[in-house]
């Protein structure tokens, strides 16, 4: 330990928290340089950045993000709330948001609701106690309490992953009804006349339920087939897909096409078809949603609908930064990222 480091440590024995001024003194720079380095490391010269980094490491300095935020009545924290941290759909979006906001000196406070509106409300209440720079929610369906909390605050709000209804403030996503309709149109265009939709957790996963609604609305005018949807109350897993396929075959003899609420459910359908000797796509065409990592490499490769999770993340970050910084060139408050139907051998 150097003499100056030891001196600084002795000076703060009673106040254990290392201060920004102590870091600046050890690094031989101004406190404003340390502050700039913490917010935007690339804006500091390489030599000064190295000295500040070493000083932070030696002193074990942890920035007090709230301290800087109190003067402006907000912190540099952005609360991002998703339905599930286990869901691969949202992982890409959150990772992109974190990278984009982190480069501007913001920190992401991540919470997950397990598809519970009551839990979302509790997370929003907790996030507001930190005076966040912004709050990012998933979807457009929220409890009255959540809406009241946000209405009473002046915090920018971005709802992501869904469009097609009233928004609280700003929104980034796409129409899930149209995604479901696109799946139905694809199966119909392939000559499949006896088709159905299977989904898991539709009573809680509002976006999957809206895809089912869009599927059925597109299906009924074409063939008069109504109510051809089968639900599983549990999570969307491959096991759920196998159960749903068996029920679909029982309820709809001669089934020719199946749309699944996501790719995991579709994977279970593919496995069960192989077990039962059902040929895909000759006997049954299958389409999923999500374009997860395995979708292009399973047997057969899965036709699916690809949402632009990374684009959603980038646009969310852009809206947040524009709102926080008050940029005159702020983007439109509602951004449609659309989706892509990726055709593979399963249809």
From TrEMBL:
InterPro entries recorded: Cro/C1-type_HTH, HTH_LacI, LacI/GalR-like_sensor, Lambda_DNA-bd_dom_sf, Peripla_BP_I
A molecular-function term among this protein's GO annotations: transcription cis-regulatory region binding
Signal peptide span: none
Domain HTH cro/C1-type stretches: 10-62
UniProt keywords, alphabetically: DNA-binding, Transcription, Transcription regulation
Domain HTH lacI-type: 18-72
UniProt key word Methyltransferase: no
Gene3D superfamilies: 3.40.50.2300, lambda repressor-like DNA-binding domains
UniProt xrefs under Pfam families: LacI (PF00356), Peripla_BP_3 (PF13377)
Record protein name field: LacI family DNA-binding transcriptional regulator
Organism: Chelativorans petroleitrophicus
